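Onboarding guide, step 5: your first structure request.
Type a short instruction followed by the sequence, for example:

Predict the 3D structure of this protein.
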Amino acid sequence: MAEKAKKVKKTENAIQRYFRETTGELRKVSWPTWPEARRLTALVLAVMVVVGLFLWVVDLFAGNLLNLVLGI
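The system replies with structure tokens like these:
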């Protein structure tokens, strides 16, 4: 029996092993429910908007300060 298992391992290539291991790992994942997924997606989008607005304001002030310092 052990010899047969060794032969299978030798004939299995890296791509087959990758897909077999990936499938096994995906079965272990604890997937969120749809309400959780929607709530977390909304949270990510809200954080993206807030950070985008913050960076826009920082860029606006930095550009104005640079123009003031350079006299443009």
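Each response can be followed by summary notes, for example: Helices lie at 2-11, 14-28, 34-70.
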